[in-house]
Amino acid sequence: MPLFCDVALPVPLDRLWTYSCPAPAEAAAPVVGARVLVPFRNEKMAGIVVRLHDDPPPVAAKPVLAVLDAEATIGPDLMQLAEWIAGYYLSPLGEVLRTMLPLVAEVRHRVLLRITDAGRAVLFAGAAQGSSRRSRRTPAEQDIEYSVLNYLENGDPAKLATLRSATGATRELLDGMLRKKWLARETEAEGRRAERTVRWAVLQADARLPKLNPNQQRILAELAGAGGALPVPELRMLLSRPADAADSVLDPGPVHAPDSGGGLDVEADAPPALTAQPAGLAKPSTSTLATLVKRGLVTIEERPLTFHVSGMLQGSTAAHEHRLNPGQLEALASITTAMECSEFAPLLLHGVTGSGKTAVYLQAMQRALAAGKGALLLVPEIGLTPAMAGQMHAAFGTEVALLHSALTAEERAEQWHRIRRGEARIIVGTRSAVFAPVAGLGLLIVDEEHDGSYKQEEMPRYHARDVAVMRAKLLGATVVLGSATPSLESWHNAQRGRYTLLTMAERVNNRPLPEVELLDMRNEFKETGQEQLFARKLIEETQAALDRGEQCIILLNRRGYSYVAMCRACGEKLQCDNCAIALTLHKAVVGGGESEHATVGDRLECHYCGFRTRVPSRCPHCESEHLYYLGAGSQQGEERLLELFPGARIGRMDRDTVRGRFDMERLLMRLHSGEINLLVGTQMIAKGHDIHGVTLVGVVGCDHALGLPDFRAAERVFQLLTQVSGRAGRGNLPGKVIVQTYHAEHYAIATASHHDYAGFVAQELKLRRYMHYPPFAVLANLVLQSDRLEEAADWAGKLGQWFRDTPLPGIRMLGPASAPLSRVKRIYRFHLVVKAENRASLHRALRGMLDFAERSAIPRRNLIVDVDAISLM
Question: Which fold, 511-560+634-771?
Fold first, then answer.
């Protein structure tokens, strides 16, 4: 057995740590690619073994505490990919490997706090004397601090939860004690098996049927229709659909495991215990299922959670069943030929909206499966997975696995192990699914490859599209990048011959692209003398479509009610306490509609840090009563549409209404069934959805993005307009799009109105070439951040001076300057933009900069290096 192992730990430091291997009699031998538990400072952490050797380190090596895996969890191909990502994006290898391995549920972490010598001194002197005279702590808070120190006085560390419960201390107070070094933080970690169970409701066939009310009858009918048993979460979801019953059902007892129906269920931000019910249903009762259990008609069984598809997806029709048109067949033939060669083949599939790219994807994946290869499909957002996952299940059954961030830690671990064991060879997921351990991976597909969601905005800041291309290159596999509006980088690669361009220029069944009409809102104001949210023409066209029994979509790409609160007297905006950003008004909802997720009472909210506050009656700056609100978000759009179209069945799709388990599925089901005939929402509605009844799309206020300080602003506006326009006319009826704009002459809007991707690209590439921006240059955004303004400014100044003083051929540096978002979560931000003629020059400059930053004592965690930055905000 080797004496030592080098371990990559998930910390923001560019190095490995050497530990001594356990004796053979004490534990299993570690292997490269396996997880081990090791001590690190005052913590115990799980890391990945990168190297085994007998070379003693310069200092005494600490021992490995435990070997968590008998075999490698990161195979040689993924290890090679991780090393490429670490080098390309200048990220610590340990951070990359942590991102690759979604097994946090299998390591239990506990936070412990212990008293320090400084804390003991304060305790003996008296907490009041130990606190600064200028402290903002109240006497009551100082008493709690003393209680904390007294509780820890015996020297034993205490769990965070235990300490808070025993003393009444808040997290903020304990954080303050840590900053004052009265307390020290430690962590414990241990391996555990993340087994999940779920409760099933089982119909008792021999039970005597007493008189039942309609709600109880509905439960028994759902169970009988499903063969006599259903998971309780899925039963609850099915019963939340609109029905004559005025009641619904809740889980009858405590949950002992993650409450989930399984692999293909879709969640958003933070799922509540019970999702909100659709409009028209009364508040659910908790007693209905419990009553049936008490009567012996239903029993509740705890069963191991296995791969399971929610009922809303099981009826999906797979796109692979449709007959392909000549354009689709040609694209499929090119993909199939590339796979048969078993060599690296990057393909760019440019298909107009509605051209049937999904059908091509599914048939290509069938060919890969038939050839004994695995296939991976990436989608940009969780919101696109319900329909895609349903079609995948219809085509491939239990061969499908789903990976995305809204699954619980246990669900992600379960799906990952299914993939690794070879039980699932078809994987669909969001950004992180690019690391799925698929055996024999032969086909990688990146749908909507232009989407910015593929870029991770935290360490490691990788782009999943580019990682997919590199993974295919390392494996000798085929990668397909699909989009109706390819990114300029991908298009440029195709024009230079690096990618093979496949084109599908016609919609399925020769359906016409929708007619796009631009409404100049400047003329609308001149003619009406009023600033209106919806133009007269849009209102007329919407009413006409509704009268014909058709469906409409309105894009209003802002959340909330109003996005600026301002004082008429002093002109000050109401800003977040933590971020340099205006607060958004969210109005309370009195009932009905898709907006019932809103909390009680109007509130101002920050969409960056989540800060919330009540709407003030007076300006906090000048005490004036004259506060007013500017700008309209999707919530105000919904309210206005309810006034304009009282007979319409209106729904809203944004992060405020799609936030719990099954919310997206339920909303899309109601839209597909025609229950909703007028949908308003943010960009969540703009891509991936195939609703054949939609004939009219309205676009309101999307051109504000043209004024953002980002060289990609025009490209994003063109893509958004093109994508949302593609939702219209996907059925048998032709579609129409009405775009309200103040910049009708802007080339991004003008070309989008003619579906002229080539015209937009030609104009945009001229500007990019002149300004030395990608794809004619490479860039990185360097962000210096600190909770002290002067410190962040000083660090930015030092790096800027280094770039000016150091000879760096082919390098251009912009800045340093305050970042467009100058303060986020009480952290001040400055940035520099570094542009280079080629990637080699950029990486040499960045590595030299990192060496200088280390010598200058600029902490690595305070310096963000964003290679190929998507956003410069």
Answer: Rossmann fold (3.40.50)
